[in-house]
């Protein structure tokens, strides 16, 4: 504990140099510490997520006139759905970088099935999530007046079989959103909590009227434990979400086996992708091809530069025997052929060379023709060549015409 005027004190484990530890905890293995932190965060996160969701549900189910609308009005259903969706969004975003913000035993099982987390960790997280659900129900029951009105029950006209599949389909939607937005890493992974929260929101809109919209065994178990009341069909709130997890896992595995990334390449592009460009020299033709990465804004400006100009090379490649050597000491040796780095021209920003605005202007077209002829001597990646062809054959952004594309096709 650090009081005002005190400085935090850490110790360093001699067996783990550079890794700071709290005093007295140097004996704790990293794996145990990681599991403990994950369990603690899942318990607190699940409790917070369900506490706010239960509190809003309590408000929705306790109108001022003490008469609960039956059947529930759309405004009541929307209020409950928003409460669960946005409570999940906020709390997942808070704890996303620590434990992943699962808060759901079905999600933990699904992530274990695809290998994102180990089964031991999944089991410990499930225990923490169940305890968090019970704690949330107890907090709402103790803080808010009136009987706890947040249990999940089937509507009078919904059969148990229908209830299972409603829970399964809605849970599959939620878990598949987690797979694609959080488990699959991409540029927008940091925004995954928004998509996950919205996925729960739309699932609640569809399910809350018929089954109570559990989608989470911990969500249904908590209130039942606090109230000491279990329906004979309580098991559907376990089987349904677990079945939904299996459905999501099977579909995810299928599209992964089919290499879904190749179906819509570049979908994650922001216009300044890293393009792999292959260049060959006489020295490299004897061995495996080597390439370099170039950042572009949609038009590959690097192709419009001379292929062997020094500024087209990475610094690590400037000392190859096939290139002049550059000396930073300020002296030039005739024997070694070194050249002063200060004599090299400065490379302008790629965004301001040859149509950095991404337009297919006249300057682009002139440079593209020279690049096309140069590509015969220096083969490029097929993907890049196809990209250039589609770029060159498009209409001019300035004129709106397709004169150049027709000339190329002829």
From TrEMBL:
Q: Where are the transmembrane segments?
A: 35-56, 77-96, 102-119, 124-144, 164-183, 190-215, 235-252
GO MF, any single term:
water channel activity
One Gene Ontology cellular component annotation? plasma membrane
Compositionally biased residues, Low complexity: 367-376
Q: Where in the cell is it found?
A: Membrane
SUPFAM superfamilies according to UniProt = Aquaporin-like
> Its domain of life?
Eukaryota
Chief subcellular location equals membrane
Q: In which residue ranges is the amino acid composition biased (Basic and acidic residues)? A: 354-366
What catalytic reaction does the record list? H2O(in) = H2O(out)
Provide the alphabetized UniProt keywords: Membrane, Repeat, Transmembrane, Transmembrane helix, Transport
InterPro entries recorded:
Aquaporin-like, Aquaporin_transptr, MIP
Spell out the residue ranges making up region: Disordered.
279-308, 339-410
For membrane topology, the record states: Multi-pass membrane protein
Q: Return any one Pfam family short name.
A: MIP
- List the PANTHER family: AQUAPORIN TRANSPORTER (PTHR19139), MIP17260P (PTHR19139:SF199)
Which family would the database say this protein is a member of?
Answer: Belongs to the MIP/aquaporin (TC 1.A.8) family.
Q: What name does UniProt use for this protein?
A: Aquaporin-like protein
Organism from which the protein derives = Bimuria novae-zelandiae CBS 107.79
Q: What is the lineage of its organism?
A: Eukaryota, Fungi, Dikarya, Ascomycota, Pezizomycotina
